[in-house]
Amino acid sequence: MPCMLCLNRNNKALAKTVDDLAELIIMHGGQAKASFKDYSALTSIQDGQADFKADKMLADLAGDHKKMIKSLKQVMIEAEKMESQAILNFTSAQIDYHHKVHWALYSHLL
């Protein structure tokens, strides 16, 4: 049951992040996507394989968080060019989050 609670907490955090992202997009004159499915169509991160062993799943997930950090650093560069403090703040918080999760996952593989 604790694992299910953790997943529920992560899902709520993801929903809030997507909502915050949509607000930023709209604030900057864009049109936000309407669903998680729409956002997931834009990602370069692939779904994991259900038949992987636990260590492989953790390693893949840790790698995905590293990819997010790399991608978000590029967003920071663009946000600086736009002089958008709101995007810089949001992106910086996301980088911090992905660093923490990456380390938590990686530490289980040591």
Tell me the layout of helices and strands:
Layout: H1 2-27, H2 36-40, H3 54-82, H4 85-109
Helix pairs in contact: 3-4
Beta strand %: under 5%
Mean pLDDT, to the nearest integer, reads 86
**SSE string, helix = H, strand = E?**
HHHH
The N- and C-terminal alpha carbons lie at a distance of: 25 Å
How many strand elements?
0
Notes on the protein architecture:
- Helix content is 77%, strand content 0%.
- It is globular.
- It starts with a helix and ends with a helix.
- With 110 residues, the chain is mostly helical.
- The longest helix has 29 residues.
- It has two domains: 43 residues, no CATH class; 59 residues.
Features:
110 residues, mainly alpha, 4 helices, 0% strand
Summarize this structure briefly.
The protein has helices at residues 2-27, 36-40, 54-82, 85-109. With 110 residues, it is mainly alpha-helical. The radius of gyration is 15 Å and the shape is globular.
